[in-house]
Amino acid sequence: MPHTSHRMRRLMAPFPSWIPLLGAAVLLAELVIGIPMAVDGGSAPAPLSMPSPYPSVTAAPISPPTAEPSPTPARATATPSRSEVEVTRIPEGRVVTLRRYRGRGSAVIGRVTDPKTGLSFAELGSPWRRSRPIGDGPIKDGRYNLRQTLLTETYGPDDDREWWADIDSQHLWSDLDAGESLYDAARAMLDYKQGNAFPAGTKGRDIASQPVRRGWLIARMIQMPPSPDGRKARQELSVAIAVDTGRPRPAVLWITIPDTHRRLWPDVDTLVRSLKIVPRS
Predict the structure, then answer these.
(1) Can you give the residue range of the structural domain that contains 193?
(2) Are 166 and 148 in contact (CB under 8 A)?
(3) CA-CA distance, 251 to 273, in Å (whole number)?
(4) Closest to 189 (Cα-Cα) out of 199, 207, 176, 179
(5) From CA 239, how far away is CA 166, in angstroms rounded?
(6) Left, alpha or beta for 145 (phi > 0: left; psi -120 to 50: alpha)?
(7) How many domains, the chain?
(8) Domain of 259: which CATH number?
(9) Which residue in 160, 171, 152 sits closest to 250, CA to CA?
(10) Over the range 196-213, which residues count as b (16 or more CB within 10 Å of their CB) and which as e?
């Protein structure tokens, strides 16, 4: 058992002998009373909550994304449908002869022969440019074989826009909705031109529909809305002649001349009367 050191005995000497006994009794009482309190003395104190090193986050359920409907691809239509162009038509089968316009028109300086389409027709002189393959002309779209052009006006804020008169020979394009007859072929070409080569709001009125040798002619007066850019032309005489030349597809001669050069409208009659078919070689 442990012994009391000499130093401790010296420290305890001034106190009465019963003091240590009293301290022992107090200690014993604390032990006797404290043990039941720790065991049976009510609910234990609530443990201290330790702070979480990370904030608690409740993940919200993620709803699956709503699938948006994919756009339906628009079907490419090369030819405007009949409802897309505003035209007063002459019904198929009814014959209305193209009038002869007064005036001298342009001089004939030769013939244009297009072996690809099988068409041959008059070549007009000044103010028309010489007929040339389409690759050499002012407009290169790959559709035409031969073209004779006339610049009729320049306009716009910077005078950098142009309007042309044209005489074009080509096969009927395979992507045109041409129907079964040569009337339908001429109609399809005019509808395409009205819907793509003229400004929005253009209206058409067929003024002639007549047979020609192995073909059909439709003439249309094109009425254009006023131009915000200062274009002077308001009307245009457009003619399509579809001809069966014995090739897989009909040939089409397209003639269009604006009213600023109505003095050249007699050229249409010159071209129609000169039209011939080139035999296949």
Answers:
(1) 86-133+144-277
(2) yes
(3) 16
(4) 176
(5) 10
(6) alpha
(7) 1
(8) 3.40.1000.10
(9) 171
(10) eebeeebebebbbbbebe
d(CA 121, CA 276): 6
Are 220 and 108 in contact by the 8 Å Cβ rule? The answer is: no
Distance (Å, whole) CA 135 – CA 92? 35
- For residue 224, which of 149, 159, 153 has the smallest C-alpha distance? 153
Q: Whole-model pTM? A: 0.69
Whether 34 is in a domain gets the answer: no
Which residues have C-beta within 8 Å of that of residue 189, sequence separation ≥ 6? 172, 176, 240, 242, 252, 254
Question: In this structure, are residues 253 and 167 in contact, taking their beta carbons and an 8 Å threshold?
Answer: yes
C-alpha dihedral over 88, 275, 181, 179, to 10 degrees? -70
In a domain, 46, yes or no: no
> pLDDT, tens digit, for every residue of 133-180?
875 444 444 566 889 999 999 999 999 999 999 999 998 887 787 788
Q: Give a yes or no: residue 119 inside a domain.
A: yes
Q: How many CB atoms are located within 10 Å of the residue 266 CB?
A: 17
Q: Is 217 in contact with 210 (CB distance < 8 Å)?
A: yes
175 inside domain: yes
Question: What is the b/e burial string over 103-135, where b = at least 16 CB atoms within 10 angstroms of the residue's CB?
Answer: eebbeeeeebbbebbbbbbbbbeeebeebeebe
pLDDT (tens digit per residue) in 92-139:
999 999 999 999 999 999 999 998 899 999 999 999 999 988 754 444
